[in-house]
Amino acid sequence: MSGHLHAAPEPSVTVRTPGKVNLVLRSGAVRDDGYHPLSTVFQAVSLFEEVTATHVAPGAGISLTVSGPQADLVPLDETNLAWRAARAVADHTGMDADVALHVHKGVPVAGGMAGGSADAAAALVACDALWDAGLSRQELTMLGAGLGADVPFALLGHTAVGTGRGDVLTPVLTRGEFHWAFAVQAEGLSTPSVFARFDELSGEVGAPGGAATSRSDGETRNAGAPPRTGGETRVSGGAAEAVHAGRSPDPGEDAALMAALRAGDPTALGEALHNDLQAAAVDLRPELARVMEVAEEAGTLGTLVSGSGPTIAALARSRRHALAIAAAWTAAGAASTVWTATGPAPGARIMG
Ligand SMILES: C[C@@](CO)(OP(=O)(O)O)[C@H](O)COP(=O)(O)OP(=O)(O)OC[C@H]1O[C@@H](n2ccc(N)nc2=O)[C@H](O)[C@@H]1O
Ligand SMILES: Nc1ncnc2c1ncn2[C@@H]1O[C@H](COP(=O)(O)OP(=O)(O)O)[C@@H](O)[C@H]1O
Questions:
Q1: Briefly, what is this protein's role (predicted)?
Q2: Domains in the chain with CATH codes
């Protein structure tokens, strides 16, 4: 008896992707294309999105359903990032865009934790696998960058430095596991509005090239120009030149953070957390200052606005301590919901 065994095509593929927190986010002045050159360190955390892509009849097109605690906040049409990702794979490969997508959200919506970007990354990988398109990692990353600055990191996961728009990634070696608590607000903040307020606070509007970025610690420095370290000003190249070159702020400023990650030292990591967008997010949502205060009273090792906010991230000594910080937020009525997670978490993975 002879014969070939042909594997039946999988009827569906499920891909899991993580949310993120920016351990450091430094921004230069806005570029001509409306983006800001960043120097950021992403850490993926164990809050996951799951996207399932299922075969449908030829010609059926793309359809989308969403589940999870904040599903009602997410668009269900072709503006959804998962839908746009499926379309991008079809356009790139010339395949028919026939797929039923289901998104299960485990990352807060519009919270500065890149849940939408995680959906885009998951949908890229799921459609590539479902349609047997054979896209390379590089092609997926390129398609992801076209969908949003945060999407390439959701593919990669773990911990990475991001420069350019945040989409040029270099993996960072880390040791051990870090424990986080997150205070999520009922109403999200839009990323463009936070960057716009950052520009206003920087005296940026109408004065490209002469910009200064205000930092949440009260220090002010020239945007795009090399940052100050230890009170010393390094001058090479002007801010105007840096703005036009779209140069990212110097990641060299974050040597202490890198050492803390390598050593797996949460206390040192807590001291090195920093977000240039924090002042803008707190300016738009003054109540966030109190959320950070509550975390400090609960003994956090460090607290900051996650990305463009309004989620507040607090680094804890242990899982137990993360739960204690979350409980303190709940008791103070400081958050709509509280979440705990660990980082780093892996990037896009096909389940099953
Ligand atoms: C701020 C960050 C930090 O990781 O994340 P979130 O807090 O939104 O999750 C990211 O830079 C957000 O990335 P993402 O949300 O993918 O941004 P995109 O969709 O590409 O851009 C939305 C808008 O944000 C602004 N933007 C984004 C990235 C960047 N480097 N400079 C910008 O000025 C621009 O106004 C852009 O039109
Ligand atoms: N799949 C998606 N999940 C969540 N939001 C989405 C999605 N697709 C589009 N969006 C839109 O993007 C906005 C921000 O998305 P999200 O990634 O959750 O937050 P952030 O950019 O703050 O990290 C949402 O308010 C929503 O309107």
A1: Catalyzes the phosphorylation of the position 2 hydroxy group of 4-diphosphocytidyl-2C-methyl-D-erythritol.
A2: 12-172 (3.30.230.10), 178-228+238-343 (3.30.70.890)
Which of 307, 43, 23 lies closest to 160 in space, CA to CA?
43
The string of pLDDT tens digits covering residues 251-289 is: 677 999 999 999 999 999 999 999 999 999 999 999 999
Helix, strand, coil share of the chain (percent; to 5): 35, 25, 40
Q: Point out the catalytic residue in the list 150, 167, 254, 276.
A: 150
Q: Nearest C-alpha to atom 23 of ligand 1 is from which residue?
A: 192
Using the mean position of ligand 1's atoms as its centre, give its distance from the Cα of residue 320 in Å: 33
Do 62 and 103 meet the contact criterion of CB atoms below 8 Å apart? Answer: no
List ligand 2's pocket residues with C-beta within 6 A. Answer: 74-75, 80-82, 103, 109-117, 119, 188, 191, 307-308
Q: Is 219 helix (H, G, I), strand (E, B) or coil?
A: coil
Distance CA 294, CA 45 (A): 22
Q: Which residues of 189-227 are buried (b: 16+ CB within 10 A; e: fewer)?
A: bebeebbbbbbebbebeeebbebbbbbbeeeebbbbbbb
Q: How far is CA 75 from CA 78, 115, 155, in A?
A: 8, 13, 22
- E strands along 219-273, which residues? 220-222
The model scores a pTM over 0.80: yes
Atom of ligand 1 nearest to the CA of 38: 30
CA 119 – ligand 2 centroid, Å: 9
Nearest 10 degrees: Cα torsion 46, 189, 168, 252: -90
Assign 3-class secondary structure to 282-301.
HHHCCCHHHHHHHHHHCCCC
